[in-house]
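Summary for the lay section of the report: proteins are chains of building blocks that fold into shapes. Here we show the chain for Carbon monoxide dehydrogenase and then a coded description of the shape we predicted for it.
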Amino acid sequence: MSNELLEFDVIAEALIEKAQKDGAETMWDRKAALKTQCGFGEAGICCRICVMGPCRVSPSPDKGAQRGICGADRDTIVARNFARMCCAGTSAHSDHVRDIVHAMYHSSEDGPFKIREEGKLRKIAAEWGIEEADTKETYALAHELAEMALMEFGKPFGTQNFLKRAPESRQEIWEKENIAPRAIDQEVVTLMHSTHMGCASDPESILRRSLRTSMSDGWGGSMIGTEFSDIMYGVPKERASESNLGVIDPEQVNIMLHGHDPNLAEMIAVASKNPELIEMAKEQGAKGINVVGMCCTGNEMTMRHGIKIAGNFYQQEMAIITGAVEVAVVDVQCIFPALPKLAKSYHTRFISTSPKAKIAGDMYIEFNEEDPLSCAEEVIKTAVMNFKNRDASKVDVPELKAETIVGYSVETTIGALDRVVNSQTDVTGTVKPLGDLVWAGVLRGAAGIVGCNNPKVEHDYAHITLMKELIKNDVICVVTGCAAQAAAKAGLLKLEAKELCGRGLKEACERANIPPVLHMGSCVDISRILHLVTLVANERGVDIAELPVVGAAPEYMSEKAVAIASYVVSSGLNTYLGVMPYVSGSENFMKLMTEGVKEWTGAAYVFESDPIKAAELIMADIEDKRTKLGI
Ligand code: CUV
Ligand code: SF4
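The coded shape description reads as follows.
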């Protein structure tokens, strides 16, 4: 397995070399061209919130400018910059979720958006207090629930509905510390206001408000996104898939789906099965139509359809460099603006589809929720008709791909856990077996490992190293986002990976017939992790902060990840970040993040770039939690 990882790095090198030969530019060329990145920006002490600036203050209290023109000091400047990252991250997740809810609002028996999981629809509707949730007509109920969800973005009173899932102790903490999130849009707007020139300057207050805004993502937008996508597109189930660039098939028309919103991806999946379009592909000399996923849209599609994963964040350019991608179609988030230009070095057509993320440089076919299939069909036709334009001399698809098992929604995970109990005598359908395994010490604990790639660290190395260290120590890993795809490529999402585990985890994997690293989906699906952890806490009658569970984002880069870290800390889980956010310029703010916040939420941010050291810290953390629980 470790060989695969090594070979995989060889692929990266080979493709970067190919890019040079093809005259194509990659992120590494651009990183080199930037030379040294800005030290003030990196430390978070450059303020350009008003036009008297930009003001860059000194990181040192002993020399240089101590304050911006308005008098803001480094603590205020760092805090405000951090807060605005939380705002943007929360906005990205939640606004993409708003589109999912809109799709559900437009769902109908005979339209393209349907309700596939009526049981889940009724369950969530009842959870949210809709009357007669078990008897109302399906689509009437779906529309009512969608309208209620839209109110979660803008309701004038009250807090997020899903907070009630959490243990009471946690809900009390959120109330007491004033971090229970109200309407999502309100939380973002009010924090943007707070961080406007001449508003909040108290770093503690700004951090607290950042947590509350981020909470409206984790327990609001993201959780709605996960649950509603399941209702419309199906609850993910265990299924086999494959991952890495080798899933691109030179004999077929290849369509690379990249972005986040399942609405577009689902429609492309449907349209790609249209026999007329497949026939058209054959007429063009291809064997068929091959849809492959990249980043979170790839996660959504592999979880629900087994669509193969071409790669994670840092491979988006490499997929095009293979020369065998007919169309790269994208919606929102994590898409390099470099792609259209890169595509021009090959025959690839780049198509953006979202008015929120119109990307200049090639095609734009707008995705419209009222007529979603026409966009999807046009994308596929474009790909099919582009097949003949391929330059055979530029096609070079690396052969490597790994087998992968995906699909561990909360429901599916609980189903898998039932395999470890005696169905005649024990309760089934709950997280009790998981709690039992942890309490018995068979599993020492669990880690949610999530987030992106970042060229500041060797791609996938931190993800894989951390996961391997933890499973070796009997810590089960649940993964999402690009971390999940790193695990997939390294062969950690297959049953055989149990050989890399400690004795306890290995035994648990054998009994439940699961891999030691569980793919739980996309970034918004971190809400699945929150939900699972919450169920365990409730089942054991403890607070989330008492559980031997941690969060980690070893290679993150996005503002979304900053919001995620903040809601995970707010939920009571220590969160290990492998890349420094832009806060090192304020010792006081760093102290608040790594210590102060512990007093409010029972958890903190931990900064550690070395994954081996991070694993050691996590093990000590987990063992400490166990001791305190007396287990
Ligand atoms: Ni939403 S946010 S690079 S695709 S995990 Fe991947 Fe995940 Fe980060 Fe983006
Ligand atoms: Fe400078 Fe203050 Fe304006 Fe920031 S808000 S740019 S520190 S004057």
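Put simply, here is one thing we learned. The chain has three domains: 43-233, 245-394, 404-629.
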